[in-house]
Amino acid sequence: MQAARDNDTIAALCSAPGGAVAIVRISGPLALDIGNSVWNGKKKLSKADARALLFGLSPAETGKTGDPTLAVFMPAPNSYTGEDVVELHCHGGTMVVKEILDATTRAGARQAEPGEFTLRAFLNGKLDLTQAEAVCDIITARGEMALHMAERQMSGALGDQIRENRAALVDVLAECESRLDFPEEDLDWKKTTETAASIANATNAIRDLRESRSDAAILREGVNVVIAGRPNSGKSSLLNLLLGYGRAIVTHLPGTTRDTLEESTILRNIPVRLIDTAGIRDADDIIEKIGVGKSIESLTRATVVVWVLDASHVPREEETRVMREHAKRPERVVAVWNKTDLLEESAAAALPNAEPAAETVRCSVMEKTGTDSLLDAIERVVWGGAPRAEPEIAVNARHAALLDQAIDALDTVPESIENEDWELAAVNLRSAIHALGVVIGENADPDVLDDIFSRFCIGK
């Protein structure tokens, strides 16, 4: 935070490493001078050629040929950071980028800190704090819905709603304060019922935003889906099927998987951490015992437990008994009768619901049947019902905590207004207005900014 307030010039690689083309960004009051020191073209970078890509070589140092590089100058305030910015577009090799960055340091720039370009954009009024957070969300998005949600937040959708409701509260606060300051004056005040209704409408809108937190957490942070069951029921084969490639070793021998195996994927636009576990049974082998213990432990951190049952196993009651014993929260369990290909069609159709699981699915991992039904069931458990439509706006944990503060502060304001207790109403309105201001960064604490922007990578 302190570094961003210094009137210095920073530089960093702002594109992903390892690509064919790399972009080195320089931002600050000396950006143009440093850019011209590092890069050499037929003509110098200048305001006359602002936002035009010019061809040259970099680094422009004696004794070095330099890498063919495109350079562009974007003068303040019309740049990403709101400062003078120079970008150098060079080949993506590690040494090429290192030489250019070393040259910028020798010319007077310093290495940018994590998130410092976006922090400067925020401090210079180019973005509000919700938009700045959306930059990080776009970079880390793990599914289409998460990406689209971040893009809408980046466009200002969340910040606009916060400002709209905050402005409504400010209007009410102004009336409360005028009533306190001029109690004897016959001013054109609104009816108390009308003012109280305005507060109620704003509170409901803020509460609706707060309710989007759970959906946002799923899309941003993902969920753990633990694949569990008795040995040789087809857990590892199911993992491979859901991933689309052979990640886990599969054999006909029970106990092949002896440790948890974790892989990330996207299922129905939900970021998922798939966790394959060792078959749960009473084991004599010490290594298998450890694996079974880890399997049972993994059930405690699961958002969804996919319990695989062997439909060909006789008696089937043993399969469901183990599930009932270890799957302690049935509302998050999807029971999967696997190996239905080994049964007659009528027998497969007659497989009972595995009580007390929330969902029961019949499938054959070997023949890849029933996969859509399984994904449907996982979706219903994750969302707690029907799959969600793509949310227009969804708040994060920081936003939700501040919205809770605003809602709590507004809880008694309508009653205070109807009772004409203007002083108490004003105190609570100020608290709510302050909390909403922190959401968009109008009065954010420096420590809050440090925490937010420290999560960014260097160059963003």
Query: How many discrete domains?
Result: 3
> How would you sum up the global shape?
flat
Could you list the spans in which at least 5 consecutive residues all have pLDDT below 50? none
Q: What's the end-to-end separation, in Å?
A: 14 Å
Largest sheet: 7 strands, mixed
CATH class division of the largest domain: Alpha Beta
Write out the CATH superfamily name of the largest domain: P-loop containing nucleotide triphosphate hydrolases
How does CATH name the architecture of the largest domain?
A: 3-Layer(aba) Sandwich
Nearest-integer average pLDDT: 86
CATH topology of the largest domain: Rossmann fold
Evaluate the radius of gyration: 29 Å
Query: Percent range for helical residues?
Result: 40-55%
Total helices: the number is: 18
Strand order, main sheet: write it out.
Answer: 3-4-5-6-2-1-7
Can you give me a brief rundown of this structure?
The protein has 460 residues and is α/β, with parallel strands linked by helices. The protein has three domains: 2-128, Gyrase A, domain 2; 136-212 and 394-441, Four Helix Bundle (Hemerythrin (Met), subunit A), CATH 1.20.120.430; 219-383, P-loop containing nucleotide triphosphate hydrolases (Rossmann fold), CATH 3.40.50. It has 18 helices and 13 strands.
